[in-house]
Design goal:
By secondary structure, the chain is mainly α. The chain is 83% helix and 0% strand.
Amino acid sequence: MPILVILSRYLHIIAAALVIGSLFFMRVILPLGLAQADAASREPVFLRCRRVFKMLIHTCILLLLLTGAFNTWRAWDDYKIHRHVMHLWGPHMFLGVAAMVIALLLLAPKEPPRWHRSGAAINLLILFLAVLCASSLKYVRDSAMRDRANRQTAPTTLPADQR
């Protein structure tokens, strides 16, 4: 089971990194590079990159949903014990689903919609916030688990020399 837990977290983080990195490339770097290209090749190059980007995003969304569900299922008992952790889990889930919906709406048509630049920029911001929630969630959950373990191993009575 530990290998499955490690693999799930690894795939979740790799998928998130690929989504953010490729979205940053498509929204920031590629337009700067295409500005230097001749006008006739800009659109075909952009559409080809968009097609590969679309396949990557669909694969990563599937991985994020599967590994996110597994990671949540595995940690659910911890979340029930430490309810304050749920205040970070909820926004992480909401932001992740919102980013997925925006990505699917942006990538659904064969041609990019008119709002694809602003949509991509908004999605990038949403993804940065989702990562902030995720890293905070991981820290708070681990901290709560350490506190719980310390309370369970702490002596309940003072030794005779400390009374």
